[in-house]
Input
Amino acid sequence: METRNLIGGHWCLAQDNRTFPVHDAATGEVLAQVPDCDVADARDAIDAASAALDGWRSRHAPEREAILRSIAARLRERKREFAQIITAENGKPLDESAGEVEYSADYFDSAADEAIRLGTEVIRSRRADRSLRAIPEPIGVVAAITPWNFPLAMIARKTAPALAVGCTQVVKPAESTPLTALAFARLLIEIDLPPGVVNIITGAPDAIGSTWLSDGRVRKLSFTGSTAVGRHLMRSAADQVVRLSLELGGHAPFVVFADADVSAAIAGALTGKFRVSGQTCVCPNRFIVEAPVYDEFVAGLASLASELRVGCGRDEGVRIGPLIDDRAIERVRSQITDAVAKGASIVTGGKSVAVAGCLDRFFAPTILANATREMLCFQEETFGPVAPVARFTGEAEAIEFANATPFGLAGYVYSRDEERIERMVRSMNCGIVGTNTGIISDAYAPFGGRGWSGFGREGGRWGLEEYTSWKYVCSAVTT
Ligand code: SIN
Output
């Protein structure tokens, strides 16, 4: 297992040799010590990325495409090994971790497809005395700060487009899941990525983030994480006018109309809600179900949720792993207590689950009936395995309910009426809509939100756009 940082093609410790421990998410066992980097290390990473920039940006697109494809292929070959590391430090079930490795490889393939499509565009002008073109150029050195819920995929979707366009990168993974990032660094060395093109350092987010944002050489930061941190980064990015992509919190509505296939809606709710134990930004957070099918939906979802096996992600058949830390457990508990005090009833779950030899971080999948907007769970992101279900009547109320939040990442709608689906798609104020499906993530599509969920898109050609600075050239035409 790799435990050192990668800067300029070299494996490094922190300059002052400090380290911090990485724990097994289920058992709490210390898996490794990794460098606790600070300002000086963060600067070294920028130096290395700056030194590599000219060489990387001047490579021909097909060369960059080939490198991206080999990263994708190597990730697929080593799926099992990466999945084990992800499960150890994040806690999610092994199958989900393997799915995350595939998802990550897709980002590299998608960026490889786009790398060779990106090129100079000729612009038509009404004037005969000039010819116009737009040249896509890499922004320069870019930074990525990534979360713990998808320790590999969130790096993949920032690194793949950056490399495709010709940017060089500095990356800081979450403190709880750095080992996946360092394994990925090892893979980059194995495929002979030129030194300095990607530099990965672990450590204190404040010192590293503020060094990168104040340096002036870092021209873009892509961050996935909480809205509170996103706001702080926006303020810090102002001085050097650093471009940002922010994928922040979500609060997704999951709307089920009475004319829906209710069994399909229940199945979609189950997969969408309980992926990574409810710790995804896009997972349904507010279930809004039309009155005639409300009881059927609640009973069906509760019955399937109560059968999901809770336990260590390494164990066969486990669907719900641990939550990431004690604060996550506290938030889940306090939302449930608040909901019950305001009239909700617990149909299943509502309590911790003891798992032999493991930390007290496991929570039973929970369905809350009779949820209302006054409850915390209808106002804040839960990031845990809790599904509160409220009732509505009629399309106007569904739209109003769904949009009653400043967040706008994902939304879901179930109905058999295609015209209604289209009206809902247009009315829902969010960046991503799933229609008759609970799983929407796809490396070839533009992932991102609006409002308090942030801005910028990741995936497909939209992902590359975020790392591109278009140069417009206007040339005189002489006849
Ligand atoms: C996230 O939770 O931030 C990402 C979810 C996904 O890509 O599916």
